[in-house]
Amino acid sequence: MVSVLLVEDDPSISQPxxxxxxxxxxxxxxxxxxxxxxxxxxHDLVLLDLGLPDLxxxxxxxxxxxxxxxPIIVVTARQDEIDxxxxxxxxxxxxxxxxxxxxxxxxxxRAVLRRTxxxxxxSEPVEWGPLRIDPxxxxxxxxxxxxxxxxxxxxxxAALAADPGAAVTREQLINNVWDENWWGSTKTLDVHIxxxxxxxxxxxxxxxxxxxxxxxxxxxxx
Length: 222
Ligand code: CA
Fold this sequence. Notes:
Number of helices: 8
CATH superfamily of the largest domain: Response regulator
Number of domains: 2
Radius of gyration: 20 Å
Helix content: 25-40%
Largest sheet: 5 strands, parallel
CATH architecture of the largest domain: 3-Layer(aba) Sandwich
Bound molecules: calcium ion
Order of helices and strands: EHEHEHEHEHEEEEHEHHEE
Number of strands: 12
């Protein structure tokens, strides 16, 4: 599970943001001051509000960067007049301007994580809620029970699990699982998705209308 340090002093922003990120499958630790952010344990990503009550957010950003290579997304108010050059100098990986859309923020988080974290080795098992995939032997378990998949069904599930919970477009799936010169009907994709749902659980793979599919968030509240 990806752990996020959320540094934000305004509860009207941090509370819905924390709840939303947890629904997306992130674990979230909240720090309401710059000092608390600097003392916190190691995380996979930091969301850093620049307007903090105790320390200058820019100093917090530089200090975090000096201490580790953790990806940092800066959250700024419009009046902060921040620019990309300054952010790079501070060591931030990206930024969003308040008020921002939750979907946009999640997309930024996933993009930064993709850029900054190495992909897990091909042989490493993937665990996501009730789903377990062992790529080394192309073995899939769901709720502890082995699932018999065709090679294409397996490839499709593995493509969705490469970045669990993230949206994968129909085009990406077709390119990954079939090939770029594949001229068959896109119905084939839907047939394979339906079959995967039947063999696991109808809620395992979510349809994102007009886009593609993703693995459902693995948190129990979803
Ligand atoms: Ca603030």
